[in-house]
Amino acid sequence: MRITMIGAGYVGLVSGACFADFGHQVCCIDRDPEKLAMLKGGKIPIYEPGLEELVTTNALQGRLRFDDNLADAVSQSDVVFIAVGTPSRRGDGFADLSFVYDAAAEVGRALKGFTVVVTKSTVPVGTGDEVERIIREQNPAADFAVVSNPEFLREGSAIDDFKRPDRIIVGTDATGAKAVMGEVYRPLSLNAAPIFYTSRRTAELTKYAGNAFLAMKITFINEIADLCERLGADVQDVARGIGMDNRIGAKFLHAGPGYGGSCFPKDTLALVKTAQDAASPIRLIETTVSINDQRKRAMARKVVDACGGSVRGKTIGVLGLTFKPNTDDMRDAPSLAIIQALKDAGASIKAYDPVGMEQARKLIEGIEFGDSAYAVADGSHAIVIVTEWNAFRSLDLKRLRALMAMPVMVDLRNVYRGEDVVKEGIAYSSVGRER
Ligand code: UGA
C-alpha cells in the first residue's frame, strides 16, 4: 500500500514508521522545516525508545520518507492518514480541529483515484462527517471514503503498543474502505489482533470513552488511596485484590499524583464538553477531571506534612519531571503543579529528570536543576519522587541520607518499600499506604 501520513508528531511518526516496517510505502508530511530537516537526517524530535532505529532502518530501506509536499504524496497514495494535533482550544476546552480541517481541505484538492482518508488524530464525534464534507466541497468528483481509526498507543511503549494492540478499531460503512484498511493492518491481523469494524461516529466516541474510562479508573484508585491513608489500609493490596477480578482487571490501578500527559487531560475535557453540548452530560468524567486537577497540587501538602508542617526556607529535591517515565513529554505533568505549589509555600526547588530536562527548562522557571538524583539530594530537606523512572528505583539510600540536610523521602509513585527506606534513617511517606 502507498500511504501518506500527515503530521510527523507522536502518533504520525510512530504509526508511519510501523506501517513502513510492515512493508508499506510511507511518506510522512510535516510543515515544520526544522522537524523535517531533523527527520531527514535520521534524528527524532521526540524521545521514544526504539523509534530512532525503526525510522532509520525503514528510511534506509526506502520504505519511509519525509516531505512537505502534501499534494504530491496524496495524489500517489491509496490511503491518507490525518495524524495532526488536536489540542484543547484555549478558553473553552473543546478540541481545536483547525489542523484537521486544514489538512482535509488540502487532501481534497490533491486526491487522485480511489483514496481512503483516515482520521487517526483523536477527534470528537462528527469530525469524520465534516472531513468528508470539506473534501467533497474541494473536489466534487473525488472518489474517496473517510474512515475513523483511532490510535491507542502509549508514550514510552509506543512501538510495542502499535505492533501488539489489543484491537484495531475501524469506523466506516464503506465496503471498499474496509478492504483497504484490512490490507493496511494485515500484518497485525496475522498476529491475531482483531480488527473491529463499526460506524465512523462509534469509532470516534470509542476512543474518548476508552481514555475517559482509564482516567476514571486511575482517579478511583487515587481516591481509595486517600481513604487507605485515613483508615490504615494499603492501596496496593486493595488494587491487587480488586484487580484479580477479571471484570475489573489489574491495569491502571496504580495510585499516584494524578494522571497527566498529552491525552487523558485533553480528551477527558473534550468529552465533557461534547457531552454537555449534546445535552447528555457525563457527570462521572466531569468529576474525574476536577478531582484530578485538584490532586496534583494537593500532593504538595503531603510534602509539607512530611517536612513537619512547613517548607518555608527549605529546599525540596524533585526526582522526575515528565508525566511518566520513558518520555521527555512534560505536557500536563503533575510535577508542574507540585513544584508551583511548593514554591508558593516558600520552598526552593532542585530538580532532576533522566530525559526531560531540556523540555522542563523551557517550562519551569526559578528552580535549580541538578544533573543526578544525588546532586538534587545534596542539601535538600526532602526528596520527592514524582515520576517512577527506573533510575530512581534503586537509589543508594545511605548516600542520599549522607547528602541530605533533613532525611525525608516522599514517594508519590510507591516505588519503595517503606521499611527499606526507614531502615536507612530516612523518614518515608507514600501514597495510600501507612508507609
Ligand atoms: C494514554 C492511553 O493509555 C493510550 O491508550 C492512548 O492511546 C493515549 O493516551 C492517547 O490517547 O494517545 P499515555 O498518555 O501515553 O497513553 O500514557 P499512560 O500510560 O496511559 O499514562 C497516562 C497518565 O496516567 C500518566 O500520568 C501516568 O502516570 C498515569 N497513570 C497511569 C497512573 O497514575 N496510574 C496508572 O495506573 C496508570
TrEMBL record:
This is UDP-glucose 6-dehydrogenase. Residues 317-418 form the UDP-glucose/GDP-mannose dehydrogenase C-terminal domain. SUPFAM superfamilies: 6-phosphogluconate dehydrogenase C-terminal domain-like (SSF48179), NAD(P)-binding Rossmann-fold domains (SSF51735), UDP-glucose/GDP-mannose dehydrogenase C-terminal domain (SSF52413). It comes from Mesorhizobium prunaredense. The gene is rkpK. Keywords: NAD, Oxidoreductase. Pathway: Nucleotide-sugar biosynthesis; UDP-alpha-D-glucuronate biosynthesis; UDP-alpha-D-glucuronate from UDP-alpha-D-glucose: step 1/1. NAD(+) binds at residues 30, 35, 86, 122, 155, 266, 331. Belongs to the UDP-glucose/GDP-mannose dehydrogenase family. Substrate binds at residues 152-155, 207, 252-256, 260, 324. Its EC number is 1.1.1.22. The keyword Transmembrane does not apply. It catalyses: UDP-alpha-D-glucose + 2 NAD(+) + H2O = UDP-alpha-D-glucuronate + 2 NADH + 3 H(+). Pfam families: UDPG_MGDP_dh (PF00984), UDPG_MGDP_dh_C (PF03720), UDPG_MGDP_dh_N (PF03721). GO terms for biological process: polysaccharide biosynthetic process; UDP-glucuronate biosynthetic process. The active site is at 263 (nucleophile).
